[in-house]
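To: structure desk
From: M.T.
Subject: fold request, one chain
Message: Could you run this one when you get a chance? Sequence is below, nothing fancy, just the single chain.
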Amino acid sequence: MASSLALGPETQILMSILIESGLELQAAKDYERSLIFFTQVAAQGGSIFREAMYTCHCDVGTTFSKCDNEHHIHALDLRATTFESMDKLELVMEDAEWILELAPRLPDGYLRVGNIAWLQNNHEYAWKMYTAGIEATQDMAVDSSPTLQQLYGARKSLEWHLCKRDPLCLPAELVTEIFSCLDIYELLVCLRVCKQWERTLTSPLHSPIWRNMIFPSKWKSTTRPCADDLKKMLSWAGNGGARKISIARKMLFYQSKFILLLKASPRLEHLEILKRPKERLWFPSNEKIWSRLKHFSMLDRYSKFHQIAVDAPGGFPHTFLQNAANSLEHLDFVAVPQEWFGSLPLIPLLPVLKTLRINNDMASNRTPLYIFHLSVAFPRLEQLSFVGLDVLDPEPVAIWRERGNDIWPHLKVLMFQSYYSRSSIERSISTLRCLMCLDRGNTLQHISLEVRSQDWSDIFNGCDELPSDFDIARHSTLQNLQSYRSSSFCITQAGARLLLSSAIEARRLTFFDMVFDDFWVRRVTDVGNASARHLKDYYWLRGAPSIQELGCYLFFFPRNPDDDEHFPLARFLATFPNLHTLTLSPRYKHGGVLSALAIAILRLTHLKTIYIPNDKIRLSNELRQAAQARGVQLKLESPPRPWPVTLRK
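Reply: Done. Structure tokens follow.
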């Protein structure tokens, strides 16, 4: 196929003249003659237009490349415009589709086909064509082509047009996507809109809508679904029943309904119970039909798993989970069962489990939990989080040296949260040290430590009780670490440098929380200078190009009335070229100094978001205006901490 580069200047000029002549005739409504000129241009200079438009059985279409001559495409587009003026929409569509065939990387064909589909009231096809054109030209800047701008504008106009109509008139996949965002209560309300809505939403075409059985807490006791209602909803979900079941914290749910839901959903993938019902639930243990269950969570903070025998009503569903061992990837629960402790624990063997989060905050068990037993039960674990589980034990220590390469070789996320004293956490420190040294720490990508005891500061030092292989200072590089998070644990600058230096050199570390020493507790007289000295010790971190998010906690910098930009923290943050998100949680009781500091930071940085996790601090209007002027989001909340953590591929 001839391209614009292959044609000589004389041919290019001739094609331009023919197009201008055709446009004049088109303006004069002499459509038949204008078509002749446009057709001549389309066939000019070696174009395969004739091969495309008329019957031919040769392989020229596969021999030559697609057309990139703008005159050829323009001529075809003008032919289509002319046919449209003559109300010959079928011929318009033919030319438009050939534009699309000959130049699939240009927006012209997509725009023309979409426009004709819209004229023919085929809104679903028009939307798909506009979207396909945007996806095919995603490497082009929107302002690089007027046609591309028209393509974006056409899709936006179509979306506005569709929004004004009954949503059930949208393309079927859009209807399903929209209504899948609703919980069961909201869906049942939608069924009462009219008979058409009820017939449409309960049809097999929209069965995915009913596969997410999300039971919210807003349901009143008088309107909660009965067993017959549940059977209907499960039938609307189609074969396999529900894929996700989520029972809210205040939703009363009885055993009979719970068993009905489970047994009617053999393709269940996600089971989430946010609060145990007053009637203690038990899980079926004699059936192995849930071979697709990937996620199980029971997050009632008053769980009695630590008091009730496993598999008993209200107890940890050991056998139920064991029966789903070949598919279960995510386990999240509150209160460790008694059977998990001791030298011969009863823990389900889950060979493909990827994430484990245990919250033991309300339990008072001080018996050590042997971490090695967990590694045997969950060998492919990638993310591990302990909350309130303060007594971890690394014994038997010798095993870590003998089988260290086999213990969680894929561990990427380690989170630990405890508020207990040194006397009860010494073994936990040793255990965490062991975990950070697995494979020299090279698999770890995210670490979070939320502890309040200053005695934790030696976690990165050596330990006489452990083999030298588990001295972080000598045997852990953590070169793939992407984030270190803590809003309470003040790590020494030496420990921080040990923890982060390899990841910074490798340009992997993107997120770091810096907790300033608790100078108030230690009764330091000059707190401002102490914070400045603490910050100065981090000279080696300045300007790290990989840092995108920083958190600063428990600091105190007094305001300089002469020059706010002399805040040491503002100058420190200004050194990071790619910093876009900042968390500020100072020791200030009033918002004036914090507002002045934040304004100074805004002047010196290119932030997009500032989190201030204290909604009681009154920030100045000047700060709010400065943030708005720079397009910076100011959020009086803590930054999100999603679980599981999204891992980079």
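Reply (cont.): Confidence is low (pLDDT under 50) at residues 1-5, 45-65, 462-467. Let me know if you need anything else for the meeting.
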